[in-house]
Specification:
The complex is a heterodimer of chains A (123) and B (185). By secondary structure, chain A is of the alpha+beta class. Chain A has one domain: Glutaredoxin (3-Layer(aba) Sandwich). Chain A has 5 helices and 4 strands, in the order αβααβββαα. A 4-stranded mixed beta sheet of chain A has the order 2-1-3-4. In chain A, β3 and β4 form a beta hairpin. In chain A, α3 packs parallel to α4. Chain A is globular. Chain A starts with a helix and ends with a helix. Chain B is an alpha+beta fold. Chain B has one domain: Heat Shock Protein 90 (2-Layer Sandwich). Chain B is built from 6 helices and 6 strands, in the order αββααββαββαα. Chain B has a 6-stranded mixed beta sheet with strand order 3-4-2-1-5-6. In chain B, α1 packs parallel to α4. The longest helix of chain B has 16 residues. Classes of the chains: A alpha+beta (123), B alpha+beta (185). Chains A and B meet through α1, α2, α3 and β2 of A and α1, α4, β6, α5 and α6 of B.
């Protein structure tokens, strides 16, 4: 393994942050990671969300989690965005590039990207 | 699946769902073969269920009646001339020592061998999804080893969760560094 001393340094740095995280999680990004999602390319989508939420400084407000099969396998990779007091948004056929856009416009800017949602697929 | 590492991600999710506290992912590689084993101490399965899981029309899921994870891995191994096995002891049969072990042997030089792919991303994804599980990942190839033991990390990290971005990034870099040695052997 890489130097464990670096982990100790991370611990020092994170001390204050851990406390901050307690009252957080206004927005929940849920990525479908069952066989169907994984085969369709959910892994890079999830990893991009994890990376970008941190890079854009959204860690206090956004949590990224995984779930099993959502039941709409033909639309995988599927990403659901839950926000208190708002209707759930379901993004379908996601890619890492679309994830960048969702972080920028939706999670940061508060604007749902209609054309990537499941309602656009049904229309 | 385009990469074996995606099969690994998929199968290890079953271990998470089985409530495992410890999950091991071992890869033993030679110039000709790759042996994968995924072991957990989760709730296990009864003999009937174990017989059923290699059947693609068996699943515990309620959204759809087809489960593809295990059959896909079995196929990926057998299509290289390799083999597949699954053993399980259910919590009901043995409340102390239970869990599941999945093993697959691949012949790497076979035309139908699926490359391992980005196994580092698989490990990071698994830890991000189940940061409270103790993960042991170990890939041996000749004299080289890439290894990660989250119990060891946790002893240093204390309260800092494994799914903190900084920690996940440390894991990624740590494994990538070890894999860099694989090319030079």
């Amino acid at each position: 393994m890489k130097s464990l001393a670096e982990l100790a340094a991370i611990r020092e740095k994170m001390k204050d942050k851990v406390v901050l995280r307690e009252g957080s999680g206004d927005i929940r990004v849920v990525v479908g990671m069952a066989t169907c999602g994984i085969a369709a390319g959910a892994r890079p989508v999830l990893n991009r969300f994890v990376e970008q939420v941190s890079a854009q400084g959204l860690s206090d407000k956004v949590t990224v989690t995984q779930t099993g099969c959502i039941g709409i396998c033909q639309f995988e990779p599927v990403v659901e965005v839950y926000e208190a007091g708002k209707e759930k948004v379901t993004y379908v056929k996601m890619t890492a590039e679309k994830a960048d856009e969702v972080v920028e416009k939706h999670l940061k800017g508060g604007k749902v990207i209609g054309e990537y949602t499941i309602s656009a697929m049904n229309a | 699946m385009k990469e074996l590492s995606l099969n690994i991600l998929d199968i290890a999710q079953n271990s998470i769902k089985a409530g495992a506290a410890h999950i091991g992912i071992l890869l033993d590689e030679t110039p000709d073969t790759l042996e994968l084993s995924i072991t957990d101490d989760g709730c296990g399965m009864t003999a009937d269920v174990v017989r059923g899981v290699t059947d693609p029309f068996f699943t515990t899921r309620t959204t759809r009646s087809v489960g593809m994870g295990i059959p896909l891995l079995k196929l990926a191994a057998e299509q290289t001339g390799g083999s597949f096995s699954i053993e399980s002891v259910s919590e009901r049969d043995d409340p102390v020592s239970h869990g599941t072990a999945v093993r697959a042997l691949f012949y790497k030089n076979h035309l139908d061998f699926t490359p391992l792919g980005d196994v580092v991303s698989t490990v990071c994804t698994l830890i991000q999804g189940a940061p409270d599980v103790d993960w042991h990942f170990c890939h041996r190839f000749g004299a080289r080893t890439a290894e990660l033991d989250t119990a060891e990390m946790r002893a240093i990290l204390g309260d800092v969760p494994l799914d903190s971005f900084e920690v996940l990034e440390w894991i990624r870099q740590s494994l990538l560094e070890e894999y860099a040695g694989f090319d030079t052997q």
